[in-house]
Amino acid sequence: MSSAPAAVPAGRSKRAPRPPAMAIARRAVNRLTLPVLLLLPSLIIIAGLVGYPLVRTIYLSFTDTGLGDLIYGTSEWVGLENFKEVFTDEHLRTSLVNTVVFGTACVIGTMIFGFAVALLLNQRLKGNLLFGIAVLLPWAVPALAASAIWKWLFDARYGFVNWAMVNLGFDGFQDYAWFADRESAYVAIFITVVWQSFPFVALSLLAGLQTIPKETLQAAAVDGANAFQRFRLVTLPLLRPIVAVLVIFSTIWDFKIFDQIYVMAAGVPDRSADTAAVAAYREGFALSHYGLGSAVAVVLFLILLAFALIYVRLVGKEGEFS
Amino acid sequence: MAVALVLATLVAACGGGDEDNGAAQSGSSGGGEAAKLEGSISVWIMDPGSPKIQGVVNQYGKDFEAAHPGTKIDIQFVPWAQAHDKFVTAIAGGKVPDVAEMGTTWTPEFADQGALLEQPGIGEGEYVSSLVDAATLDEKVYGKPWYAGARALIYRKDFLEKAGVEPPKTWEDMTAAAQAVKEKVKGVYGIGTTGLSEHMYLPTIWQAGGEIATQEGDTWKSALNSPEAAQAIDFYASFYKDELAPKAAIGWEEPDAQTAFINGDIAMLIAGGWGYNSIIATKPELEEKIGTVLQPTGPSGKGTAFAGGSHLVQFTESGNHELGASFVDFMLEPDQLNKFTSEIGFLPGTTAGIEASGYLEDEARKPFAEQLLNASAVYPPSPKWGGLEGANIFDGQIQKVMKGEETAQDAVAELATKMDEEFAG
After folding, report:
1. Which neighbouring-strand residues pair with B311?
2. Of A253-267, A299-313, B189-203, B356-370, where does mean pLDDT reach its minimum?
3. Please, what is the angle between helix A182-211 and helix A143-153, to 10°?
4. Which residues have CB under 8 Å from B331's CB, separation 6+?
């Protein structure tokens, strides 16, 4: 009886002697080898497709590379010259401001509209499945096609929008040129962008809404909370992680918005409705100023990075982001 | 971030330039029947916007393949609006076509980058000379003129009749005619002056007696900061300001104006023979309602238009210069050439082609030919011009004047500065 307790520690120490440092290191390496090997293919792809272009763009943004320099590989290091120009050139500066202001407006619009649709779809209505599918459709339309279609809907003389407005009694919309002004052009583009991006938001939020236990909401109702209070005090906090992720995604999408602007804002006087993505493209590919175009892209990248970091921090503080 | 990626991937793709120029150059200048043609080439042609004309071009490929067994001609159509960007991207990425149609104002630009092959054996008087000039950089020719054209003025006979005016001969006539149409023909605007077509507004500077740029030694200097240029832009913008053109026209490109003309929304339009053909193809009943006259003359007494057109070029990085050169020459044979130009509404770029075309005998199309031959000019053949056009540096200022946000004098001064920056850079 007394030998048993003694035998156990003795046996253990015999079978598992305290391993020397080398062995610990080897085991650690062994333990890491498989995961690293498994990750390697995707790491290589990411490094090739994201890492290298990113590094190359950042490098280009410090040079005066033009088309000829691209072909013959000669370009000059100009330091921060390009970045100075990004902030002094009126058009480029405007494009950055447009990006932040219009992008933010689109994020807010998409979230509000997406939420509204999600709440509607969450009601037990007849034909919900049909509505769910219908909501998905705008998302399935390629952005370029959608932009062309909406541009037609907003056409001055033959567009549906003006026709409808005139028939509703707003005669000022007869031949109203939506794209002759930055502000009215943005109204049209805003509608297009929100129309295209709300389905994802709506369906993600719907999925979130359906995970909220009905008992919680019933309990709140019993406690005397009205519909708005139930939404604000129960639903919204429970959906917070999803909302945060959606806001980050939307911000990234809407800040680098390209297709809609490229198609719909091309005729806006003095290109005053260009966003940074379009400006970078035009600077690089139309004017062959690759250095300057890259600099715009880098600034846009930094803005997005800053926004993403702020959001992640905000969410992280709540301790609900995992 | 997407833009960063796109920019960088393209840049990454073009690491090393090929060094096979030596072998290829000897091939293209040899040009004998001795060498048997083989292999395949890719050819980019600007999309003429009609299946019928595409058919003519595709037939070139088929006929050539039939005449030279063992060859393959792969023809792709590229829309004009994207073409400049697409060439730049292709050159940067090292994925150029073997042969391409190129807008005449772009040829010096890409030649200057070393992307184009010199075209030897351009004989005196063989081609329309202004188009050879447009393809010349440092006394070397980089493109063979394919076709050419100049914009004249087309108008709806019925609208002008209803308004009680004759087709305009001068700037003043044009303003008066536009006003009369606005007053007397309901729902129709006088003219479609757009904000996004430099070929409509830049030539007014010549008409006013000004210049666009002048050559100073190796480089070019903008001549836009002048009273003549300001007067011209003022004139062009006045139609929009006085509501003689549709409100949306400020954001229109030429095809939009053409659509408006087809729909009967505007009475007059600055358009080329190609536009005329395409309008009639879209709505045949318009043929008897459309008249054509030379562009109205400005204060200088000239009604100069822009002589535009296309070159056929070969790329240095092409792998088969011999086949490319042979296909280009095939397309330029007078019979072949006229199949295309008669459809598209341009004049052939070769003198033999023009003689064979019979263009001057056709009443409705004659003004287009006269405009090109007697009253047209080309933009400065500077390597920088294509970039200026590609970036549309002009449109923004013109639009500001059209909206009344800026005076024409300030606009041309600003443009002159921008142009000089580009010429110098």
Report:
1. B102, B145
2. B356-370
3. 130
4. B60, B146, B312, B337, B340
Residue with tokens 């149409």: B181
Whole-complex ipTM: 0.72
Q: What percent of chain A has pLDDT over 90?
A: 49
Q: Distance (Å, rounded) from C-alpha A217 to C-alpha A231?
A: 9
Residue A166: closest CA among A174, A155, A156, A158 = A174
Q: How far is CA A252 from CA A156, A257, B119, B245, in A?
A: 32, 9, 49, 40
Tell me how far the alpha carbon of residue A57 is from its chain's centroid.
Answer: 20
Q: Mean pLDDT of all residues in chain B?
A: 87
Instruction: Indicate the burial class of B390 (C-beta count within 10 angstroms; 0-12, 13-18, 19 or more).
Output: buried
Chain B CA closest to residue A264? B251
Continuous H helices in A61-142: 67-72, 81-88, 90-122, 128-140
**Per-residue pLDDT at B29 exceeds 60:** no
Q: Is B221 helix (H, G, I), strand (E, B) or coil?
A: strand
pTM of the predicted model, to two decimals? 0.77
Residue A280 has pLDDT above 90, yes or no: yes
**A19 confidence band (pLDDT: 50, 70, 90):** low
- Planar angle of CA A258, A260, A265, nearest 5 degrees: 100
CB A295 within 8 A of CB A83: yes
* Confidence label for B290 from pLDDT (cuts 50, 70 and 90): very high
Tell me the nearest-neighbour CA distance from A15 into chain B, angstroms. 56
Instruction: List chain A residues with CB under 8 Å of B17.
Output: 71-73
Q: Does A143 touch chain B (CB under 8 A)?
A: no
Cβ contact B344:B53 at 8 Å = yes
Q: What is the per-residue pLDDT for A284?
A: 87
Contacts of B170 (CB under 8 A, 6+ apart): B296, B297, B298
Shortest Cα distance, chain A CAs vs residue B95, angstroms: 12
B392 sits in which H/E element: none
